[in-house]
Amino acid sequence: MNKLFILLLFFTTPILLFATNPIIPNKGANDPHIRIIDGKAYLSASHDKSSDNKRFTMEDWWLWSSDDLVNWKLEYTLKPEETYIGKPFDQCWATDIVKRNGKFYWYFSEGNKQTGVMVGDSPIGPWKDPLGKPLLTSDMTPTHEYDMGIVQDEAGEYYIVFGVWDYYIAKLNEDMISLAENPRKIEINNPRGPYNLDGKNHEKPTDDKPFIHFYNGNFYLSWGCFYAIADNVYGPYNYKGSIIEKGSFAPGYDAPTWPTGFRQGRHGSFFQWHNQWYFAYCDISQTGNRYFRDTFISYVHYKENGEMALIRIDGIGVGEYDANQTIQAEDYFKAFGIHKKETETNGFVIDNISNNDFLTFQNIKGLQGKKKIEFSAIPNEEVTIQIYQNSPEGKLLASCEIAPADTTKKNFVCDLPAMSDTETLCFVFVGKDKQLMQFGSFSFK
């Protein structure tokens, strides 16, 4: 395992785990859907039973929570006996959870056949099956009615998307436990997938486990790391590519992988929190067993044309940082007032910085003994970067004066006070106007 710090609290409930990537190591949490509900991240996931699995064996569904995407707490284990299934069942496949009108709705797959839904007043239950039967039945469409995802459009309406190879979508009624319409087939132009890398496999053009998210006027339909874009939730969608390629991997994370390669089995979800986007997805590089999967999270950055840049797959993950490495400014945990801008070299910088905008980087580890911080930035005028502990309301640690230079890029070094080994640092930008500077990265010395 890579840099895994595991704390197990035995003989007590709930269970607490602390980790990087994978976020919940050695537990088999997979097919992750992460939703931000009431200021907290909730992970609903399938659960591979054992590292000795020789097939997909999943006997329950999990719900975890986190305040920072690093420390995860098991909130609830949903047993098939609590659902209309009514008995032990070892094909508890993908799941999703959303909140609407003060109630929580937990959707679950009955293997690769049908979809049910539970309702609760809180994420930790109690949960009840309001229908006593599937919401999506196995004879509803020509595809299989499982591996669902819930999507909300810009008008606040909710939809359910599901299927394998061909995807179907239907609007949900306000009660979230019935369909407002018959499911419609989603058209995808020129799709690719883990079994269809060249576009010639028309029997298996995509994959199972569809997901849709909305960003900047577009709907993004994804199946693992492959995705397509449309300006309407129903489509048609235009295939764009994969966010995982060979250049995505840090050493030790590119293998072992699935039979058809590293793009297979990347079931997951996209989500936004604190003005940052993420992709949560399955990985087997640390287990070596496709039937005992982990959940990884990576940052997501959007190009100016709306496409997504390649993600980075490593052991650091998100929500924490290594003070012995250069930290990219666009990989912040929290931001106010800024904009990510694509560079000519396919990277990103922070742009459109105005007075009192800020960036927060939590859980920076390895700071003890570091005496200086170096900013890589292009100032447009005189700017002061105020460095606070935890938040703009925290303790002021240092102020760094940055002035325009003749060169197009310059590194600015400032002194730091003695700090703990792990700190959360907040950079507040102070200046007279808008467009104060472009901010690329920072490092410690």
UniProtKB/TrEMBL annotation:
InterPro entries per UniProt: CBM6, Galactose-bd-like_sf, Glyco_hydro_43, Glyco_hydro_beta-prop_sf, Glycosyl_Hydrlase_43_Enz
Alphabetical GO biological process terms: xylan catabolic process
Tagged with keyword rRNA-binding: no
Mind telling me which residues the site (Important for catalytic activity, responsible for pKa modulation of the active site Glu and correct orientation of both the proton donor and substrate) is annotated on? D147
Q: Name one Pfam family in it.
A: Glyco_hydro_43
Q: Which UniProt keywords apply?
A: Carbohydrate metabolism, Glycosidase, Hydrolase, Polysaccharide degradation, Xylan degradation
Lineage, top-rank taxon, reads Bacteria
What GO molecular function terms would the record report?
carbohydrate binding; hydrolase activity, hydrolyzing O-glycosyl compounds
Q: Where is the CBM6 domain?
A: 328-445
Family membership, please give it.
Belongs to the glycosyl hydrolase 43 family.
Full protein name: CBM6 domain-containing protein
